[in-house]
Amino acid sequence: MDEIIYLNMVEMERNHWWYKGRREIIGKLVKPYLRPDMKILDAGCGAGGTMEYMSKYGSVVGVDISGEMVEHCRNIGLNALHESVLCLPFEDRSFDLVLCLDV
Fold this sequence. Notes:
Layout: H1 3-15, H2 17-30, E1 38-43, H3 49-54, E2 58-64, H4 67-75, E3 80-82, E4 97-99
Parallel strand pairs: 1-2, 1-4, 2-3
Helix pairs in contact: 1-2
């Protein structure tokens, strides 16, 4: 991935109104169903903004097809795997909540 595109994606996911608003909406929609010990999958995690937000609700794992995005997530302390959402390396029912947003 081009370095400029990568940096723009990271910045946009952190600060753009769309991503901020989306995180707030998702939080409000799923909050009534959340427990502190939940296992959450962010399929197509990108730069990890949703993972960071959802981490207050449980243990979050992210997967993304972009090695650069996965590396970024890991560098900021998130648990991300370089995988395709079309062939996930998890057993059925491994997660209590799966998010797949804008993928």
